[in-house]
Design goal:
Structural class: alpha/beta
Shape: globular
CATH topology: Rossmann fold
Number of helices: 7
Strand order of the largest sheet: 3-2-1-4-5-6-7
CATH superfamily: NAD(P)-binding Rossmann-like Domain
Largest sheet: 7 strands, parallel
Number of strands: 7
Order of helices and strands: EHEHEHEHEHEHHE
Distance between the termini: 45 Å
CATH class: Alpha Beta
Number of domains: 1
Strand content: 15-25%
Helix content: 40-55%
Length: 238
């Protein structure tokens, strides 16, 4: 079975963390398009699924003739429909406004916002054909900002605005748009953040990736008459 017989799920950031977990959850029923930055990281993931192909691109390189444009020009003609588009790729960019230089701001915003818009735009005809779902993996940082995370929060606030605008634009075309806002999750990015904060890593304080996947499934499995527009899932605490 392949993209001609299965529903299609395109997932960025699918080589680790939440993106990989969503890919594993969909693997039995969907043809997967596994997005990642390098062929070395994407290849082994693709090989582990019954129906999958790679989408290799540096999402920060989104200008004319860049890595992302080239990858999309090869991918889009192959996909007649996209049932689920999951935007999971993201950069952290931890640091204060005083510390972070403009180049870092540009790179994080390019990956976390601009590439999301560009990929969605390129796949909209296929999403409309399937009356599909765009699932944007946002963050609690897309709802509340905090010191030391201004860049990441700015990118996630912008991603929420993008989701809200896209949702209204695509209602007439049958495309649903969900913002998924996990709290702190036990992932590689969380290790990076805790190291930046100088704390001790205690996985019991964070959401399991599987809990985020279950929240994503709420949107993916919604009945045809329903749209799950925003989901916030946070660690329960003790």
């Amino acid at each position: 079975m392949d993209s001609t017989t299965r529903p299609v799920a395109v997932i960025t950031g699918a080589t680790r963390g939440i993106g990989l977990a969503i890919a594993r959850d969909l693997a039995d029923t969907h043809h997967l398009v596994i997005g990642g930055r390098s062929a070395d990281s994407v290849g082994p993931v693709v090989a582990g699924f019954p129906s999958a192909e790679g989408f290799v691109a540096d999402l920060a390189d989104g200008g004319p003739g860049g890595s992302l444009e080239t990858a999309l020009s090869e991918l889009v003609p192959r996909l007649g429909r996209v049932d689920v588009l999951v935007h999971s790729a993201a950069l952290l960019g931890a640091g204060s406004v005083a510390e972070l230089d403009p180049a870092t701001w540009s790179e994080v915003l390019a990956v976390n916002v601009v590439a999301v818009a560009g990929i969605t735009r390129a796949l909209l005809p296929a999403l409309r054909s399937a009356e599909g779902l765009v699932l944007m993996v946002n963050s609690g940082s897309g709802l509340v900002a905090s010191a030391g995370s201004g860049l990441y929060c700015a990118s996630k606030f912008a991603l929420r605005a993008l989701a809200d605008a896209l949702r209204e634009e695509e209602r007439p075309h049958g495309v649903r748009v969900t913002s998924l806002h996990p709290g702190r999750v036990d992932t590689d990015m969380q290790h990076e953040l805790v190291a930046f904060e100088g704390g001790d890593y205690d996985p019991s304080r964070y959401l399991r990736v599987e809990s985020v996947v279950r929240a994503a499934r709420l949107a993916i499995d919604a009945a045809p008459d329903a749209a799950i527009e925003m989901v916030s899932v946070r660690p329960r605490g003790r």
